[in-house]
Amino acid sequence: MVYVIIVGGGAVGLRTAEILSQHGILVTVIEKDKRRAETIMELTKANVIVGDATDPHVIERAEINKSNYFIAVTGDDKTNVISAVLAKNYGVENIIVRLTNPTFQEICHMIGIPHIINPAESIAIQIDAIIRGIKFVDFVRIAREDIDVEEVHIREDNYDGKTIKYIKEKSKDIIYPLMVIRKNKILIPSDDLKLHNKDKLMILRKRRRLPF
Length: 212
Description:
Strand content: 25-35%
Helix content: 25-40%
Largest sheet: 6 strands, parallel
Shape: elongated
Strand order of the largest sheet: 3-2-1-4-5-6
Order of helices and strands: EHEHEHEHEHEHEHEEE
CATH superfamily of the largest domain: NAD(P)-binding Rossmann-like Domain
């Protein structure tokens, strides 16, 4: 069972908890505001702890030592950074941080926290993609029998420099491009996004039928 701790029960934290819980992922949300914490308990299946995630005792109550992912998405960069550093000190390998300040982003890169999300992008979707798409892609199962999840490795001799629109037009069996993974960053695959050498393109593709 995958276990995820989310710091922050605002719109992003709430939506992320909803998405992950729907996919059978065990979630604990740490939220300072008691009323907001009660709302999360009413709307999701997540366990909720009222407290400050920059306090080691609070994240210990969340059983930080058992978590597979630690996600800090409050509206305060300092809280997100401090709680992420604490999580790293407790040995959590997969940490996702919401940040707007470039200085804090650089600090996180320097201490080995690669998954930094800018709130200008679709945060909840990216977090879900990171957890279910990249790390656990081999275990993803699509309910419909005629669809597969496929990872396309971009090389200089295939789609380097081509746009997502070009890929969709050339590959008639692609249902939907999920995301582009570029140097540990998640990019939303808009039609005009150009692919680079060593990118990974995650797609939903119609399953190829056997000729008998």
